[in-house]
Specification:
The chain is built from 18 helices and 2 strands. The protein is an all-alpha fold. Strand 1 and strand 2 form a beta hairpin. Helix 5 packs antiparallel against helix 6. 33% of the residues are buried.
C-alpha cells in the first residue's frame, strides 16, 4: 500500500507547471500492483470510479499531464533548432491556430533584428514552398491583415540616428489617429501602419517619448481598447513591458494553457540580454512555480542570456 506521504509527493509532482520527474521515478520504480492501486485511490485528481465502479483515469487531467511533459521537449527543441527554422515554424503554427495566436506573429516580427526576420522568411520559403506574406494575405481576413503583412515584410534601419522633428510629427499623427478612432480604427490608418512598419526601433522609441509629452499619456495607455495595436507598440517600443506581462500571466496559479505555452516560447527564443533587468524576478518565480527538468532548462536558458547580456 502506498504511504500517504508518497501520494502527497506524487500529487505535487503532477501538479503545476512541468512535472517532478525524479519524485515520480522514485515512487513508481518500487511500485507493484497493490501499491499502484492505492496510488490511484490517493490521486483522485487523476483517477476516479465511474457509475459502474470502473476505476479509470480522468481524460482531461491526463491530457493536461501530457502537455506538462511536452513542455520539456518543446523547451529543448526550441533551444536547439536553428532560429530561422524555429521562427518560421512558430509563424506557421500561429497562423494555423487563428486570430487568438496572431500576437505570436507580432512578437516575432517586432522583437527580432532585421536579419533575423529576413532569415525566418527565407526558412518559411524552404519549409512551406510559399511566403509568410502570401499566407497572411490569404488567411487573415480582419483589419489586422495589412499591419501583419507589413510587419513581417519589414527590414528596418538598425543604426542609432533619430530625427527628433520627424518623431514629434509622427507622434502627433498617431495621436490624431487614436482621437479619430470612432471614424476609423487606428489599425486601419495607412500612416499608422507606415510609421510602425518602416521606422527603426530607436526612432519608434523617440516617437513613444514625444507622444507622452504631447498627450500626457503613453500610446499604450491611449490604446487600451486596441489590444492588437497596443501589443505591437509594446513589442517595438517597450519590449520589457511586453515580456514582463507575458511571463507574469504564464506563472500565475490559474494560467491558461496558451499563457503557459508562451513561457516556453519566450524564454527559449529570445536573444541573450533581452531579459536583462527582469531575470532575477522571473527566475525566482520559475523556481517556485515550475518543476523538474523543464524548470532546469528554463533557468539554464535564462542564466545563459544573463551571462551573454553582460558580456
Amino acid at each position: 500500500m502506498a504511504h500517504p506521504a508518497e501520494v502527497e509527493v506524487l500529487n505535487k509532482a503532477l501538479s503545476g507547471i512541468g512535472v517532478d520527474e525524479k519524485s515520480i521515478i522514485s515512487i513508481l520504480g518500487k511500485s507493484h500492483h497493490e501499491h499502484q492501486r492505492s496510488i490511484r485511490k490517493g490521486c483522485s485528481k487523476f483517477f476516479f470510479e465511474d457509475e459502474r465502479q470502473f476505476e479509470r483515469w480522468d481524460d482531461t487531467a491526463i491530457k493536461n499531464l501530457k502537455l506538462e511533459f511536452k513542455r520539456f521537449k518543446d523547451a529543448v527543441v526550441y533551444s536547439l533548432m536553428h532560429p530561422w527554422e524555429r521562427d518560421a515554424r512558430l509563424l506557421k503554427k500561429a497562423l494555423k491556430k487563428g486570430p487568438q495566436q496572431y500576437y505570436v506573429i507580432v512578437e516575432i516580427a517586432c522583437t527580432r533584428s532585421s536579419d533575423q526576420l529576413l532569415g525566418a522568411r527565407k526558412a518559411y520559403h524552404s519549409l512551406y514552398d510559399r511566403s509568410i506574406e502570401e499566407d497572411l494575405a490569404a488567411h487573415v481576413k480582419a483589419s489586422e491583415r495589412k499591419l501583419l503583412v507589413a510587419l513581417v515584410s519589414a527590414y528596418r534601419y538598425e543604426g542609432p540616428k533619430v530625427k527628433e522633428d520627424t518623431a514629434k510629427s509622427e507622434a502627433k499623427a498617431l495621436l490624431n489617429a487614436i482621437k479619430n478612432a470612432d471614424k476609423r480604427k487606428p489599425i486601419e490608418d495607412e500612416e499608422v501602419i507606415t510609421i510602425l512598419t518602416t521606422r527603426s526601433k530607436p526612432h519608434l522609441r523617440e516617437v513613444y517619448e514625444q507622444y507622452k509629452k504631447i498627450s500626457g499619456n503613453t500610446i499604450t495607455q491611449d490604446l487600451e481598447a486596441e489590444m492588437f495595436l497596443r501589443e505591437t507598440i509594446e513589442c517595438l517600443c517597450t519590449p520589457h513591458t511586453y515580456f514582463t506581462k507575458v511571463l507574469d500571466k504564464a506563472l500565475r496559479e490559474d494560467a491558461h494553457e496558451d499563457d503557459k505555452r508562451a513561457l516556453t516560447r519566450l524564454v527559449a527564443t529570445q536573444e541573450a540580454g533581452n531579459f536583462k533587468g527582469i531575470t532575477d524576478k522571473f527566475g525566482q518565480r520559475i523556481e517556485e512555480r515550475v518543476k523538474g527538468a523543464y524548470k532546469d532548462v528554463l533557468l539554464g536558458v535564462l542564466a545563459r542570456g544573463e551571462i551573454n547580456g553582460k558580456a
